[in-house]
Amino acid sequence: MTGGLGGLVHLGLLYDAPDDLVASAVPYVRRAIADGDEVHLVVDRRTARTFREALGGDAGGVVFPPPSSMLPPSAPGFPATVQSWARTDRRTTVLGQYPATMPAPDCGFGEDALNLVLRDLPLTLICTCHRDLDPDLLAVARRTHPHLATPAGRVDNPDFRTPPTADPVPADLWGAVAVRLGVDGTAGLAEVRQYVADVAERAGLTGDAVRAAVLAVHEAAVLACRSGDPERAALVVEVRARPGHTLFSEIVGPPAPAESLGDGADPLAHLRPFCAGAHLHDGPDGRAVRVLTTI
Amino acid sequence: MASVRFAEPPVGGDPRHTLLVADAVDHGRRGTAAWVERELAHGSKVYYKGWLSDGRRPEQHWLAGPAGPRGARDALTSGQLEFLDFPTVVARTGGTADGVIALFRDEVERALDDRWPTVALSQESPRLPMADAAQVCDYAAWEAGFDVLTERWPVRVLCQLTVPHENDTAQWETVAVHHRDLVDGVWSAGVGAGRWQPRGDLDAHVARRFGAAVHGALRAARAHEDGPDLHLDLSAVDFMDVACAEILMLAARSAPAGQQLVLHDGQRFLRRLFDAVGRPASVRESEDA
Predict the structure, then answer these.
(1) What is the DSSP letter of B60?
(2) Residue B35 and residue B20: Cα distance in Å, rounded?
(3) Chain B contact for A246, CB < 8 A?
(4) CATH 3.30.565.10 at A171-294, yes or no
(5) For domain B12-178, which architecture applies?
(6) Which one of A52, A240, B73, B287 is CB 3.0 to 4.6 Å from A175, fit for a cystine?
(7) Which of A79-93, B148-162, B179-193 shows the lowest per-residue confidence on average (mean pLDDT)?
(8) Residues of A with CB below 8 A from B4's CB?
(9) At B202, is the secondary structure helix, strand, or coil?
(10) What CATH number is given for B185-275 in this structure?
(11) A230 and chain B: CB distance < 8 Å anywhere?
(12) How many CB pairs under 8 A join A and B?
């Protein structure tokens, strides 16, 4: 929900050598520069040198942060880091390399988080993975990217699997369900806040971090209520926790009237400062608002 | 297990003039019944103004039924509780502010002459049309009359606002006038040490009424001898959402030049919220921060 900037483009790029990586990536980088994107290529020095040579004069429009400056997908703070890259006035393109030592399960968790709750951000993320890395890590790269960047261009990824968002959700993705309750309208949100605060504290949040988590879920619920009559809208609130890692909340309300959709403004802008990621999905069966808080 | 804390109307203690807001009729009756029951138990003389269906007697009002306060039926018989229906109030007072105030003053004086130690007055949601400025002024005048009663005598007043019974203007003005002392589900408001103090949870469900109370507090501060700034004590706010934060900041932004909102105490997180929604120059921290 970012107006005319478009949502997340999440590309996987599998390569055998730096030249291979650069050849596949350069068309995307050139297009991003031409479109006015902010472009970050977070790669090792040898690959950076190859990129500079391939881009020639266009390399001036690119930033090359050191790999040590970026959290890998396996880090708990990764979704929040990705969130911080988004701009309101232009798209951002970031290319990064999978570290060889990254734990595959945690990497999969971080990548799934992007697909679930950050897919409305104006970002192009190109995640590159050397084919010689741990097979489990390579499998994660194949499973978590809807499209692949290849020398022949962007292709659909047949191995991509959408992370499940409804029951049965694997406990290793967002954790076990800590709270599931139904409330009617905004009058029931005080009860929701109490439950979220309890779960957040048990998951390891403290002080203002608890308040921010509670506020983000509350605002998501208000948004879900507003797709119907705010005083009567029936909501189902589900909160999952991975202690020490994440708090994931999904609030499902009535379907929004068609005329209220797509006015260009970001309906989540007011709650984004208080969470690591948020996503709104309007479907014929209802409105779902998802909020991710990292711990 | 999480539990939600609801504010309850105050009982006993110093004279005060409180508004009890209820989203639904049964919620209002529960709070009112508790208040009347406690006042009866404290030995107060209780005057109650309410609505009666055509042809019904006070003994048939809900107050004397199973949902009413314990002891109400006996109190009606003994005279500790007196009931008057609104049509009779209008007939006796002409429906004017002066007439209403005179009626209540006479009742208070009569109770004190009869040696009741304290007097408790409660009236159900009056369903006033408040169709024009004159009617709003009249309403504000008679509510000010309650303030005079509580300043002069040992009188406690519980005004009731039943939301489904009142139009938007009536809801707004009723809450604005009562900003000094109101109870509304999970939030309430009061005044202490020259500061207006909202308490509890301020969220989208009560945002419009919170806005009315802020409006009333700003309006009263402009007329106060220590004004025009409104000193806001945030120490008892447990939760505030974006809707209420925006209302507060917008109210401060649209206040007349020279009037400021001065923030006292409260969570650091509230300041982060105010900054996120946009804090205008007319909002400042107190010097004791």
Answers:
(1) G
(2) 10
(3) no
(4) yes
(5) 3-Layer(aba) Sandwich (3.40)
(6) A240
(7) A79-93
(8) 190-191, 194
(9) strand
(10) 3.30.750.24
(11) yes
(12) 56
The answer to whether the Cβ–Cβ distance between A195 and B2 falls below 8 Å is: yes
ipTM above 0.85, yes or no: yes
* Cβ–Cβ below 8 Å for B204 and A186: yes
Mutation target vs A (from B5, B201, B249, B269; most A CBs, 10 A cutoff): B269
pTM value is 0.79
For A160-204, what is each residue's pLDDT tens digit?
A: 987 655 444 555 667 788 999 999 999 899 999 999 999 999 999
Q: What angle do CA B5, B9, B14 make, to 5 degrees?
A: 130
CATH architecture designation of domain A3-156: 3-Layer(aba) Sandwich (3.40)
pLDDT (mean) for B115-123? 96
* Nearest-neighbour CA in chain A from B255: distance (Å): 24
Q: Per the structure block, which two tokens stand in for A189?
A: 């949100």
CA distance A20 to chain B (A): 45
Residue with tokens 């005329």: A259
β-pairing, A123-130 vs A92-97, is parallel
Task: Tell me the chain B residues in contact with residue A213 when contact means C-beta distances shorter than 8 Å.
Answer: none
Spans of all domains in chain B: 12-178, 185-275
Domain locations along chain A: 3-156, 171-294
Given this model, what pLDDT does residue B198 score? Answer: 98
Please judge whether A186 and B205 are an interchain contact, meaning their C-beta atoms are less than 8 angstroms apart: yes
Where is B249: in which H helix or E strand?
helix B242-253
| Chain B residues interacting with chain A (CB cutoff of 8 angstroms) | 2-4, 23, 185-186, 201, 203-205, 239, 241-243, 267-269, 272-273, 276-277
